């Protein structure tokens, strides 16, 4: 476990070893961005709840038709059931089917992933959101925030049980002058990818590729070439790439070209 102090809370990182034995590092999302995302999601739920209640009052409660009198209790029960499913399922369904993001998390550019760096699953989303009830004790997510503050990877209780962590994607959205120059160069020499090859790229593949591109400047030359070779070998096999010689000669350049070519369809808000 890494040594840390509370003043370093905003700079924590998590090391992840992929199934291909490639070590990646993610910046974990701190309390500030997570709290902001929670406020956005809570505000959305509040507006939806108020809208549903107002519409229900206008359509059902404020009408005096005699045939509605016997159905009002049943209608109220259905309303309460709908609101329960809406509020309980909002975080679960969005995180499960929107690759670890809610509306608030997407706006704050943070995402829930599993401890192995892969996207969150249906089961892990269900577990981490079930434990929101415990994290919220006694109120305002106090217990969850307390645990997250002192955990070296910013995990709340739900994350500890589900084996998940929340990571920041801000760094992947920033582009240095050097990266812009590499993009311009790469876009001039596009890889001849057909539809079948594009469809072969999964969310795990894109996450691995984009994380390497974001972190490559912090790697030594030897480590960069070693990691690029391992990652490029994975894509060569997956894409059934025939030009092995050029990839083996310049694996980082191959990955750079592949990244810029796939970025539009895989960047935040794109393919999921």
Number of strands: 4
Name the structural class.
mainly alpha
- The total tally of domains equals 2
User: What kind of oligomer do you see?
Assistant: single chain
Distance between the termini: 32 Å
| Percent helix range | 55-70%
Write the element-wise H/E pattern from the N-terminal end onward. Answer: EEHHHHEHHHHEHHHHHHH
Mean pLDDT: 79
- How is the main sheet built? 2 strands, antiparallel
Radius of gyration: 23 Å
Coarse morphology = elongated
The neighbouring-strand order within the major sheet is: 1-2
Spans of at least 5 consecutive residues whose pLDDT stays below 50 are 1-10, 171-188
Number of contiguous helices? 15
Please report which band the strand proportion falls in: under 5%, 5-15%, 15-25%, 25-35%, 35-45% or over 45%. Answer: 5-15%
Question: Please, could you describe this protein's structure?
Answer:
- With 272 residues, this protein is mainly alpha-helical.
- It folds into 2 domains: 1-168, no CATH class; 174-266, no CATH class.
- Helices cover 62% and strands 7% of the residues.
- Strands 1-2 form a two-stranded antiparallel ribbon. Strands 3-4 form a two-stranded antiparallel sheet.
- A hairpin with a 5-residue loop joins strand 1 and strand 2 (23-27).
- The two termini are 32 Å apart.
- The relative contact order is 0.11.
- It holds the Pfam family RDD.
- The chain crosses the membrane at residues 43-62, 74-98.
- It is a multi-pass membrane protein.
């Amino acid at each position: 476990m890494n040594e840390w102090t509370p003043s370093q809370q905003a700079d924590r990182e998590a090391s992840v070893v992929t199934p291909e034995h490639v070590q990646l590092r993610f910046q974990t999302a701190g309390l500030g961005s997570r709290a902001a995302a929670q406020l956005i999601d809570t505000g959305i739920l509040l507006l939806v709840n108020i809208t549903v209640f107002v519409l229900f009052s206008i359509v059902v409660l404020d009408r005096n038709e005699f045939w509605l009198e016997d159905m009002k209790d049943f209608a109220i029960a259905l309303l309460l059931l709908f609101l329960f499913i809406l509020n309980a399922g909002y975080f679960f369904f969005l995180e499960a089917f929107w690759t670890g993001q809610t509306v608030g998390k997407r706006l704050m550019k943070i995402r829930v992933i599993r401890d192995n760096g892969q996207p969150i699953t249906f089961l892990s989303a269900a577990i981490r959101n079930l434990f929101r009830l415990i994290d919220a004790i006694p109120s305002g997510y106090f217990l969850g925030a307390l645990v997250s503050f002192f955990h070296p990877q910013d995990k709340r209780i739900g994350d500890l049980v589900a084996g998940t962590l929340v990571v920041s994607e801000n760094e992947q959205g920033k582009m240095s002058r050097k990266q812009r120059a590499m993009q311009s160069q790469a876009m001039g020499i596009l890889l001849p990818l057909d539809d079948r090859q594009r469809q072969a790229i999964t969310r795990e593949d894109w996450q691995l590729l984009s994380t390497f591109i974001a972190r490559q400047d912090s790697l030594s030359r030897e480590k960069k070439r070693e990691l690029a070779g391992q990652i490029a070998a994975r894509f060569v096999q997956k894409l059934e790439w025939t030009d092995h010689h050029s990839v083996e000669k310049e694996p980082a350049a191959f990955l750079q070209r592949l990244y810029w070519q796939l970025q539009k369809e895989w960047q935040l808000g794109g393919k999921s």
